[in-house]
Amino acid sequence: MKANPRVGPLASRPGEAPPHLDVNALLDDPGTQVIVCCGSGGVGKTTTSAALALHAAERGRKVVVLTIDPARRLAQSMGIEKLDNVPRPVPGVTSKSGSLDAMMLDMKRTFDEVVESQATPEKAAQILSNPFYVALSSSFAGTQEYMAMEKLGQLRNDARKTGRWDLIIVDTPPARSALDFLDAPERLSGFLDGRFIKLLLAPAKGPAKLMTAGFSAVTNTMAKVVGAQVLKDLQMFVAAFDTLFGGFRARAQQTFELLQTKETAFLVVAAPEPDALREAAYFVERLEAEKMPLAGLVVNRASRPGDGLTIEQAIVSAARLDEEGAKGPTADLLRLHADRLRLVSRESHLRQRFVAAHPHVPTVVVPALSTDVHDLDGLRAVGSLLTA
Amino acid sequence: MTAVTATTLLIRSRLRNVTDWDKVRLHVVTGKGGTGKTTVAASIALALASRGQHVLLCEVENRQGIAQLFDVPPLPYEERRIAQGPDNGGDVYALAIDAESAMLEYLALFYRLGGRAGKALDRFGVIDFATTIAPGLRDVILTGKVYEAVERNSRNKDARVYDAVVLDSPPTGRISQFLNVNGEFGELAKVGPVKGQADKVMQLMRSPRTAVHLVTVLEDMPVQETIDGITELSGAGLHVGSVIVNLVRPKTLDDTSRAQALKGKLPRDVVTAELTQAGINATDELVDGLLAEARDHAERRALEDEQRARIATLDNTVCELTRLSDGIDLGGLYELALDLRDQGF
Question: Confidence class of residue B92 from pLDDT cuts 50, 70 and 90?
Fold first, then answer.
């Protein structure tokens, strides 16, 4: 499947600071009902979503957070180390009116549940044991994204029905490209609408004359290359799955539309690295093209800006102290300072490039913590940095 | 990399004596997202080439990461030379493998389904179907192309033969599946030529000619993923090569200063005096700032040491690459390559 081609923005006035992203206002607005945290892998999406969720809960929202693959210790501290695909209350949340539930996505289980809810028991059993289904539900690139969307839809319906939650925060699967999350439903419908699938279905459904000469050449080739058994399994799978296709497509479409409404807010998470910011830029452009509500950009793990000396001053002074044989730690401290200033300047340069292309995206910069986040206090610290 | 650490590493690798680098023809580079896999893969390729080898650097995720890194136009499905050593004749070719092209090439090669037949398959959506949806098939096709590059021999006229192939592969979470070590594809296709192809690829992957290197940074989750990944890969009969620790904080403070900084006991008066000696106006604010920075650095180094200790319990050779504060540009890439070469690559 081809990725959507990139459409870049126009030029804007450089050098202006982007608007500040007011995370508290976003979380306090009762109109915000779904927050989706997107971004490429390794930028701290999971921690950001968990911190946002805790912060919102302690400000009085009734929150459920859907995480994808949290660090073990973080999962433990949130009481969700057991992967059972059901939201559980997080212990230790201090809030009068708010609450926090958390869950970890079990992709295969979510898929199985959809099949079970859509098909008759016999048909469901037939599908669940088909090797193609097993592979599709556990390893198809995009299944995780699709299932995250499916789960989001389920949680939303639950929230509507029971009033248990008024804010759903979703972490997105670790992907090289943040766009995978938005592409997944389309990819699945693409698969379901594919001409090849339709042709595979034809013999199971109708008279053999539907098999065009060209197509039998194709299936013959397939049989030659992958073996006839595979083709038979595939045909059985597609035939059994056929009745579910419509439902799947409708649900994916529904969730996609939910993401376009005003009650949703996308937060794009990035680190001050070229790859992560490039992915963030692609994602922002895509949201604009799809008319999806972008709340802003979170730049994680930023080096703290320092003042006092310039890089050059620090380096020259350190060299001078070395030359004069100073015994104290000061020369090293100066080199440390210079090193950090270099990082800061590189990061701010990278961010400026992003701002030049996307001047209207509200941004919050979160300084890196010097320790790992693996408990609620750590999440609270991130939460207050996010809302500083 | 200081001389001391390099020596320690050398001794360590001798003691463990796990990998005979000269035998390895295929270097698979994996790691958690955000740890710098592509950078490390490129550095390994450059390091090998700087020892005179002819190296092919492959990527498989349609990301054009290599082109961006080497600052060249997007790579086609064709081996392009992107680096050449000055004296000893080593070079690096790069190839961006996309599943569709690889599949068409495969069909043309083995079934003489080139040209029109390939186009017919394409028209029926078979190529698209096979490469995006059919579980596992995509991976078999991608690794199949890598297999071809590794096993290529000089009997074929005009064939470019490589001493080593470096593969920038999918992240740790997907690596076993990608290398098909669990035989997932075999479950689907029990017979047929593609099954045969998958088996041959698996044989190469499991042979001592393949080494899987894991890239990590010194943080809890990436290290955990590395440890889990090694268990999974070794359990599946794959040969795990090095653990490459990337983005290591420069060791700017010595151990004494670090310990003092951690306790907040760096000698403030000495720092003030020395700053004045260097001609700097040592305001309280500035001294406070420097001391706080030192403490921050020491805390992070302590965390790094914790993670380093976990990695040291592993039975693998470990290489460390220091974070370059100016980021990775082409020059930095060569710096890392030299670092790796000095550490045994």
Answer: very high
Provide the token pair at A386: 């996010």
Query: What per-residue string of b and e applies to B287-316 under the rule 16 or more CB within 10 Å gives b?
Result: bebbbebbbbbbbbbebbeebbeebeebeb
Which residue has 């938005």 as its token pair? Answer: A182
B260: which chain A residues are within 8 Å (Cβ-Cβ)?
A: 329
DSSP classification of residue B182: T
CB contact under 8 A, B192 and A335: no
A vs B, Cβ pairs < 8 A, gives: 209
How far is residue B174's CA from residue B96's CA, in Å, rounded to a whole number? 19
* pLDDT tens-digit series, residues B322-335: 888 776 677 778 88
Model pLDDT for residues A26-55, shown as the tens digit of each residue: 999 999 999 999 988 778 888 999 999 999
- Residue A136 has a pLDDT of 73
Residues on chain A touching B289 (C-beta within 8 angstroms): 306-308, 337
CA A4 to chain centre: 18
Distance, CA of A347 to chain centre: 23
Termini Cα distance of chain A: 42
| pLDDT recorded at residue B88 | 63
Residue B178 has a pLDDT of 84
> Closest Cα of chain B to A261: distance in Å?
30
- Chain B: nearest CA to A157, how far in angstroms? 29
φ, ψ for residue B59, nearest 5 deg: -125, 155
DSSP 8-state symbol, A34: E
Kindly give the parts of chain A with pLDDT less than 70.
1-16, 83, 139-142, 174-178, 185-215, 217-218, 225-226, 245, 306
Helices (H), chain A: 23-28, 45-58, 72-77, 107-118, 121-129, 131-139, 143-162, 180-193, 195-205, 213-226, 228-260, 274-289, 311-323, 330-357, 376-386
- The alpha carbon dihedral of B171, B172, B178, B184 has a sign of negative
Higher pLDDT, B99 or B118: B99
Nearest chain A CA: its distance from B139 CA (Å): 11
Taking an 8 Å cut-off on Cβ atoms, the answer to whether B135 and A72 are in contact is: no
pLDDT at B242 (0 to 100): 93
Binned at pLDDT 50, 70 and 90, residue B260 comes out as very high
CB contact under 8 A, A333 and B291: yes
Give the residue from chain A lying closest to B180, CA to CA. A139
CB contact under 8 A, A1 and B286: no
Q: Between β-strands A34-38 and A264-270, what pairing exists: parallel, antiparallel or unpaired?
A: parallel
pTM of the model: 0.81
**Alpha carbon distance A21, A284 (integer Å):** 15
Stretch (H or E) spanning A100: strand A99-104
Q: Can you tell me whether residue A61 is helix, strand or coil?
A: coil
Q: Give the residue carrying structure tokens 């799955």.
A: A241
Q: Buried b / exposed e across A202-225, counting CB within 10 Å, b at 16+? A: bbeeeeeeeeeeebeebbebbebb
Instruction: Yes or no: say if A54 and A380 are a contact pair by the CB < 8 Å rule.
Output: yes
Per the CB < 8 A criterion, the answer to whether A27 and A52 are in contact is yes
A181's CB contacts (< 8 A; 6+ apart) are: A36, A38, A145, A148, A149, A172, A173, A175
Spell out a b/e string for A327-364, using b for 16 or more CB atoms within 10 Å of the CB, else e.
ebbbbbbbbbbbbbbbbbbbbbebbeebbebbbebbbb
What does the pLDDT read at residue B5?
39
Q: Does the interface ipTM go beyond 0.90?
A: no
User: According to the model, what pLDDT value does residue A15 have?
Assistant: 58
Looking at the complex, report in whole angstroms how far the Cα of residue A317 sits from the nearest Cα belonging to chain B.
Answer: 5
Q: Do B121 and A132 touch (CB under 8 A)?
A: no
Q: Is B342 a residue whose pLDDT tops 90?
A: no
